[in-house]
Amino acid sequence: MRRYGVALLMVSLLLSCSKVPDGILSEKEMKAVLIDMQLAEAMINMDYKTYKDDADKEALYQAVFRKHKIEQAVYDSSLVWYGRNLDVYMQVYDLVLAELNERQKALGDVQANAAPVSKQDSVDIWPRLTYLTFEPNALFNGVMIDIKPETNYPSGSTFVLGMRVWGLNDGMKNRPEIRLSANQGDTIITVNDKIVEDGYHETILRTLPTKQVKEVYGFIRLDGKDDSTSYSKVYVDSLNLMRYNYGRLPDPTDSVKVAVAAKDSISK
């Protein structure tokens, strides 16, 4: 799909008319499709192993077309028309960027270099909102993680991603998946995990004791494209990402304490 963007940038014709003709996506429709295309590209860039084949990428793009109930030919024709009317295209794209920025703000993101860099033990470095919802038929059900501290985390740090989950049922074909990775220079440590039942869940990532940690990244997601009739919503709250110093194993009672605290906050 990148070829479409390249072709679009090479179009040299400027404003030919201000009215979108029949058979071309309106400005509102084009904005909505472009937003989902941007999200699709982000998914591919973040999870290259899943989308390493062109067929997998194309399937994701086709999911966008199905969501908006259009054929790819309509999208292609619209790109050509907007490419010939670049002033209209740029107005639409400004709206696309504005909405994506608003969505990012709504997630409660912090700047990458604002993540905690303290060397003290038991530090929560989770930078986003502490809750999320998985919904059927959503283009991307989940959240991406990318934390780059101003100074590296100490060698051998242990990272524990914790959360409470409810709404899972036996009829679901898929389950929420977790991938957590640590960049230690020439070494990448990765753990893959899956949430199979309601309750409090932890994913533990232990790094090498000889190298500092430059970045922590990954995702939490639920693939619901073939599972849209088996659940309504799945909820996650009490999200936290604790960093522990080398040699300090997480206290098993920490999970219980967090779960109880979350339960108490909900009941109030």
Structure description:
This protein is an alpha+beta fold and 268 residues long. It contains six helices and nine strands, in the order H-H-H-H-H-E-E-E-E-E-E-E-E-E-H. It has helices at 2-9, 27-46, 54-67, 72-84, 86-106, 252-267, and strands at 123-124, 132-134, 142-147, 158-166, 177-183, 188-194, 199-206, 215-221, 234-244. Strands 1, 2, 4, 7 and 9 form a five-stranded antiparallel sheet that branches. Strands 3-8-5-6 form a four-stranded antiparallel sheet, with no helix packed on it. Strand 5 (177-183) and strand 6 (188-194) form a beta hairpin. The protein is globular, with a radius of gyration of 22 Å. The model is unreliable at 1-18, 109-115 and 252-268 (pLDDT under 50).
